[in-house]
Amino acid sequence: MKIHPYLPHWAPEIADLFHWAVHAISPSVYGPKQKEAWAPTPPDYTYWSERLVETKPMVAIMDDRIAGFMELGEHGHIDCAYTHPDFQRRGVASALYAYVLAEAKARHLDRLYVEASLVARPFFEHRGFSVITQNEVERNGVTLVNFRMEKPLPPAD
User: Fold this and answer.
1) Which of 21, 58, 67, 124 is spaced 20 to 30 Å from 13 by Cα?
2) Residue 156 has pLDDT above 80, yes or no
3) What are phi and psi of 65, to 5 degrees?
4) Local confidence band at 157 (pLDDT 50, 70, 90 cut-offs)
5) CA–CA distance, 36 with 71 (Å, rounded to integer)
6) Rounded to whole angstroms, how far apart are CA atoms 142 and 8?
7) At a CB cut-off of 8 Å and minimum separation 6, what does 35 contact?
8) Does the pLDDT at position 9 exceed 70?
9) Cβ(136)–Cβ(34) under 8 Å?
């Protein structure tokens, strides 16, 4: 696996990855209407192209495919952290997070924060994030639950 900075020609594949990752979540966690509100079918490729130019995610490549991506915003916000269903449980998110954490420390950020889904919450808890609050977010008339989580970062030596 290799981690690379975002390149614009990857936008359609990342949009598809996001869609597939959301729609692969067990219906016992998020139902079909919730998944469709979160990741509409078909993906909005124009939106994703514009978004990714701004957010510049880190991208994991395995077997010549995009296996996952993660964004680190200016003030320590992890806005997107998704792994393609074909590559889950293979260390993709962990590798991306290690890169993001190193970048946050290099930027001398004092914390990382995320709005984690029900399925992402354990991943972030395992890495030292604490739940600050549970959120109910409405998208297209459908309510989704996520968790605002934070992790303080020690000052650089």
Assistant:
1) 124
2) no
3) -130, 155
4) low
5) 22
6) 31
7) 22, 23, 25
8) yes
9) no
Tens-digit pLDDT profile for residues 117-131: 999 999 999 999 999
Taken in order 92, 95, 97, 103, the sign of the CA dihedral is negative
Predicted TM-score (pTM) of the model is 0.95
HEC per residue, the chain: CEEEECCHHHHHHHHHHHHHHHHCCCCCCCCHHHHHHHCCCCCCHHHHHHHHHHHCCEEEEECCEEEEEECCCCCCEECCEEECHHHCCCCHHHHHHHHHHHHHHHCCCCEEEEEEECCCHHHHHHCCCEEEEEEEEEECCEEEEEEEEEEECCCCC
Residue 66 exposed, middle or buried by CB count within 10 Å (0-12, 13-18, 19+): buried
| CA nearest neighbour of 68 among 49, 48, 50, 88 | 88
